[in-house]
Amino acid sequence: MSAAGTALKAIRDALIVAWVNGWIAMVRGFVWVLSSALTPLSILVVLAAHGGLKGLKWGLVGGLIWIVTSSSLSLIGDAAYYRVAIKYQSMLVASPTSAVGYAIGLALSALIFALPALLAHIILLALLDVPALTLESLYALATLWLATAGMAFAASGLVRHMKYAWSVPSILSAVMVVCAPVYYPATLMPSPYLGVLLPTGAAGIVLQHSARLATYSAPLLLAALLSLTAQSIVGLYCTARLARWRER
Amino acid sequence: MSFATKSGVVLGVLGPNGAGKTTLIRILTTELLPSEGRAFVAGFDVVRETGRVRRVIAAVPQEGKPIDFLTPYEFVVSYLLLRGLSLREARRRAAEALKQFGLWEVRGREIETLSGGMKRRVLVAAVFAADAEVIFLDEPTVGLDVYSRRVVWNAVLEMKRAGATVVVSTHHAEEAAALSDYVVVLSRGRVAGFAPPRELVERVPGKYVVEVEGGADSIADYVAVLQVGSTKLYYVNELPQTLQRAINGTRVVVRPKSLEDYVLLASHSAQGGL
Fold first, then answer.
1. ipTM exceeds 0.95, yes or no
2. Residue of B nearest to A11 (CA)
C-alpha cells in the first residue's frame, strides 16, 4: 500500500473507532459524560462561590484544560479494557486495521465524549466575554490533547490488570492539573518556567494569557508553545511506536 | 516446534493447559513476537511481512468478548469496516452472518443483554463475515451450550467449504476429532504429534482402554498404562480377559481408544513422543 493509502486507511480507521467508542458510547451512556464533567464543574462552583466573577473565569479556563486532559487520559482505561479485558485489540491486530488509526480513534473518541462539557465551558466563557479561544489557545488545547492522548496510549500498554486501568487516569489527571499552573497563575511557582514542564501547565499559561487572567512575558509564552509542540510530537511518537500493538 | 499444513483445511490445535496453544496462535496472528524461529501464514513471514499476514487473517482470541454497549449488527459492521470493506459490503455481509449464526432477531439489542453463548457467536460471526484466507479460533466453544457449540462447529465447516484454512485451538479432543483434517498436539511448547486425527488415534497403543477407579494394579496384560488422578487407564489388546481381572469391586469403564488418549499420553511423556 502507498504512503497516501496507508494514511487514508489510518484516518478511516480512526473515524470508525471514534464512531464506535466515542459517538455510540456517548449516546448510549450519557451518565458517563455527566460523571466525567463533574469534577471541573465542582471546582467551577467552588471557585465561583469564593472568587466571584474572577473565580468563575479561572474555573472555566482551568476546566477546559481539565476536561481535555482527563478525557485523553481516560484512554488508558479504554485501551486497557479493549486489550486486557475483552481482547478486542487482539481481534484488530489480526486484521488490516491501522495501529495508529486505532490509537488516534480512541483519542478522538475521548474528545467526542468531552464535547458536551467543553461546549458548556466555551459557551459560558463567551457569555462572560472572556477571549479564551484565540488561535494560540486553540493550538494549546489541540497539542495538549495530542500530548496527553499519546502518553495515555503508551501508558495503557503497561497496564496488566484492569483494577489499575480506571484508577490510574484519575490519579494522573489530578496530578497533572494540580501540580501545574492550570487553576492558578504560573507566577506562584518558584519559577514560572517550571509551569511549562507539564503540557497542562504550558496550556494553562497560554490560555490564561489569552483570557487576560494573567499577563506573561513573550519568552514564557514561547516556551509554553514550544513545550506543547515538543510534547505533542512525543505523544504522536508514543502512539505510533510505543503502543503495545505487538508484544515481545 | 515444526509443522506445516496445506490451505483449505481445518487444523485442530490440541494440548493441555500451558502447552503453548495460545502462544502459538498469538505468534501466528502477529500479536506476539517469537523469541526465535520463523513462522509463515499463507506463505507470508509473520515477523517480516506482518502487513501481508494481517490482510489475509482473522481471529477470535481466547476469552475474547464483543464490545458490550454495541449491538451485534454494529459490532460486525464496524469490524468489517476496520478490515477495509465498504459500508454497503459490510452491511450486506453482516446481515448474512448474523442470519447464519441465529443472531438476526437480536441484531438491534445491546450485546450486554445477550447470553454468553450469543456473545461468543457475535465474535465468530464477525470473523466469519470477514471472509479471510486463514481464520484462527482460540478455544471458540469454551462455556458454550450444545446449540451454540454446534453453530460454531457448522461455521467452521462452512468456512472450510468456502476455501478458508481454519485453525481451531481447543481442550476438547472430541471437538478436534470432529472438525479437523489435521491435528497438531502440543505438549510443553513442543509438537507431540501432527497428523490426521485418525492416524493419531492409531498411534495410541492397544485397541481398548480400560479405566479403573482406584490405585490397585488390577490388570496385568496391558501395553501401556497411565495414572490420571485416582483413575488408571490401561491400554489393552485383549478385552474379555482384562475385564474379568478388573472387576473386583472397583468401577470399571471400557471404551475404544480415542484422540483424547493420544493427548493424555503425549502430555505425560516428557519429551512429547509416543
1. no
2. B82
